[in-house]
Amino acid sequence: LMANKVEAHDRIYVHDTNRASSTRMLQEGLEYTKLALSSVPHTHAVASRIYETRMKIYNDLNDIHLMTVSFGMAIKAALSHYGDIGHHPLISELHCMYGSLVAEHGGQKNINLGIKNLEKSRKLASRIMGAKHPILSTYASELARVYLMSGDTRAALEHYQQALLLIQSSVGLHSLEASNLYYEMAKIKQMH
Question: Does residue 138 contact residue 119 with C-beta atoms inside 8 Å?
Answer without folding.
Answer: no
